[in-house]
Design goal:
Strand content: 5-15%
Number of strands: 7
Distance between the termini: 148 Å
Radius of gyration: 45 Å
Structural class: alpha+beta
Shape: rod-shaped
Order of helices and strands: EEHHHHHEEHEHEEH
């Protein structure tokens, strides 16, 4: 390389110009991003685990630990042998994990013979409902007694109205009197005074939510007619009473049962042809009786309290008979007859 000379003739060092060409960096790949994402996910899971462990109780931690030691529905070994070599002998069960954790599952298994905890609450609620029902019917009984004395339409015929409590509920019986019958002889047409009594009773009965049962009864004297007997007569009279109650303001939906029993259930069994056996019986039913009827089980054996006996129907011989030999109406069969209350 030739050396140049300066103005004074001296040699000058050569000037070297180095040109550097800039080039872009090569591609390094994105594998670091995947690694970073895995790390971030692991850290998030780790801190989530720390948060969960910090918010659980010692009992829950014990349940979690127990589950991982024995992932089965019962304490001890797994519920089923391992189906594959991956799980190994005595490995985890292939059944679905039940929600609740190991401790809760063991508790349920160990006490499977015990009734569920809700049963106690259900029993208490049922007892309370029955107690409220008894109080309501007792109040109705008092109201009926007061009305019989206070209302003219009832007071005039108080000797023909019997009140008592049966296993089915509050029973109201309207009986025949020897000088005054509820129906014309052999007829299902209500006498005017009988209709007025039923109107007054409907006004009182409709104040409670309980449904009613109406039954007709006759004495033992046969009703002589073609294809018509005391059974048909008692049923027709019970239905006539139903219609009068509805006219008196009783909602039709509150009638749960209407039956004719002829002379099968006598009020005075000692005197089968007594006028008191001809009667209309209205029962304001309790909850047990309503449920029995809904399940097509109207027998009082189904609604009687445990240990209750079924004495023979007693008579209320205080009542005076009536002049209709054909029949009468009354309420469903009562398992026990309590002394009538006027």
């Amino acid at each position: 390389m030739a050396r140049g000379k300066g103005a004074d003739g001296e040699a000058v060092a050569p000037i070297i110009i180095k040109k550097v060409k800039k080039r872009g960096h090569g591609h390094h790949g994105g594998s670091w991003k995947v690694a970073f994402a895995d790390f971030a996910t692991a850290m998030m899971a780790f801190f989530l685990l720390l948060w969960l462990m910090g918010s659980t109780t010692e009992e829950q931690k014990g349940a979690i630990s127990e589950y991982f030691n024995n992932p089965s529905a019962v304490p001890g070994t797994s519920t089923a042998p391992s189906p594959t070599s991956v799980q190994g002998p005595g490995g985890a069960s292939t059944s679905m994990i039940q929600v609740g954790g190991g401790m809760e599952l063991h508790t349920a298994s160990d006490t499977q013979d015990a009734p569920p905890a809700m049963d106690d609450d259900d029993d208490d609620a049922e007892k309370r409902a029955e107690e409220i029902d008894r109080e309501r019917l007792a109040a109705l009984m008092n109201q009926l007694k007061e009305a019989i004395d206070a209302r003219e339409a009832l007071a005039k015929f108080k000797d023909q109205i019997l009140l008592d409590i049966t296993p089915e509920g509050v029973r109201i019986q309207i009986i025949d009197h020897e000088r005054r019958s509820m129906f014309p002889l052999g007829s299902s047409r209500l006498e005017e005074f009988t209709a007025k009594i039923l109107y007054e009773l409907a006004d009182i009965i409709k104040t409670v939510p309980n449904r009613i049962s109406i039954s007709g009864h006759t004495d033992i004297k046969p009703y002589v007619a073609n294809n018509y007997s005391n059974w048909e007569l008692s049923a027709d009279r019970a239905n006539a009473a139903r219609r009068a109650l509805i006219v008196g303001g009783l909602p039709e939906t509150k009638v749960g049962r209407v039956v004719g029993l002829a002379s099968s259930v006598l009020l005075d069994s000692a005197v089968p042809d007594s006028p008191v056996n001809r009667r209309i019986s209205i029962i304001v039913m309790n909850r047990r009786t309503e449920e029995a009827i809904l399940h097509e089980n109207g027998t009082l054996l189904a609604v009687q309290p445990d240990g209750a006996s079924t004495p023979a129907s007693g008579a209320s011989s205080e009542e005076a008979p009536a002049d209709d030999a054909g029949g009468s109406t009354a309420a469903p069969i009562a398992a026990a007859v309590v002394s009538p209350v006027r």
